Amino acid sequence: MEAKYSKYVLEFKRPSGTSRGVLLEKETFILEISEAGKKGTGECAIFRGLSFDDRPDYEEKLKWLCDHIEQSPDHLKEELKEFPSIWFGYEQAVLNLKHGDHLYFPGEFTDGKSAITINGLIWMGDIGYMEEQIREKLEKGFHCIKLKIGVNWKEEHSILQKLREKFSKDQLELRVDANGGFNRGEAVVVLQQLADLNIHSIEQPIKAGNWNDMAELCAVTPTPIALDEELIGIIDSEEKKKLLKTIQPQYIILKPALVGGFAGSDEWIALAEAQNIGWWITSALESNIGLNAIAQYTFTKNNPMPQGLGTGALFVNNFESSLELSNELLWFRK
After folding, report:
1. C-alpha distances in angstroms, 103 versus 17, 174, 258?
2. Burial of 307 (0-12, 13-18, 19+ CB in 10 A)
3. Mapping DSSP to helix (H, G, I), strand (E, B) and coil, where does residue 218 land?
4. Burial class (CB in 10 A: 0-12, 13-18, 19+), 285
């Protein structure tokens, strides 16, 4: 068994805004494992500025993995526990080596018999740009839209009000993602304003790491709260349990590249379900390689909620994809 990796920089078609700043490009690493004439490909989808493993020795660890690729998966997993995106790439490459042909989790989804319902993502920008994205998503038949908020709440609130005037909560599910954009005092007000508009949920209203403040918000919030960045860097099982027990959120959001791949996501799901906490899966600006693997994994989890999977259409230089979006349904086409 041999392995190699290469760096790849994805370029956005247009600047994409979040409350953490505007994104112009996204660095990622492609891992290839070969054995007996077969090849498996995975994506070590690091997210600079957000990933727990965004550290100076990242490539050094990737090289270490390639040099030690023949060691047991259990040993590699232990060695890579502080590098969730590298482990994620390894999981993909091993699965692809086994199944071949863009496959990671073969089944009804990859046979083209069933699809995944996804939400439409609205990026931050000026009012005109956000409304243009919303129109486009509605015309394509989306029944669930997620808006990035937390930069100019007055304008963002106005957009949500207009949407709700046109569409009831039964016609259109609205989710928002603040990326930690509010302080606690602001969050209390915003949570009530969102409830008045029948907003489904808000992701990460305040910055991660403030467990007690988040717990107090979750205990009284009129709008369900979903933890996202809060899960990043929590790698110990007991610590995961403690976080969920302390904060008791209504939902958690799982980004496999940020929470330890499929194994890490499975663990979070089991812990959340044991405490009656809801969850869904989202992508984190992976290339079509990682996105394809996440979509196939997501389908196996049988979660009926709209999932937060992109379509890879944000980048000008993405890889070929087997994923195809028809209205709000994500299909696998060989």
Report:
1. 32, 32, 22
2. buried
3. helix
4. buried
Cα–Cα distance measured from residue 52 to residue 311, given in angstroms and rounded to the nearest whole number: 24
Catalytic residues, by residue number, are 148, 255
Backbone dihedral angles phi then psi of residue 238, each to the nearest 5 degrees? -65, -35
Spatial contact of 223 and 201, defined as CB atoms under 8 Å apart: yes
Closest CA to 229 of 212, 245, 214, 246: 214
Report d(CA 119, CA 137) in Å as an integer: 9
Q: How far is it, in rounded angstroms, from Cα 29 to Cα 85?
A: 9
What is the pTM for the complete model shown?
A: 0.95
- Retrieve residue 187's tokens: 């969050």
> Do residues 127 and 153 lie in contact, with contact meaning Cβ atoms separated by under 8 Å?
no
Nearest to 210 by CA among 183, 188, 238: 183
Structure tokens at 250: 């209504």
DSSP per-residue letters across 65-111: HHHTTTS-HHHHHHHTTT-HHHHHHHHHHHHHHHH-TT-SS-STTTT
* Tens-digit pLDDT profile for residues 108-155: 999 999 999 999 998 877 888 888 989 999 999 999 999 989 888 999
Residue type, 30: I
Tens digit of each residue's pLDDT (9 = 90 or more) over 242-261: 999 999 999 999 999 999 99
Short-list 130, 147, 122, 244, CA closest to 199 = 147
Q: How many Å apart are CA 315 and CA 304, to the nearest integer?
A: 28
d(CA 254, CA 232): 10
Asked if residues 325 and 306 have their Cβ atoms less than 8 Å apart, the reply is no
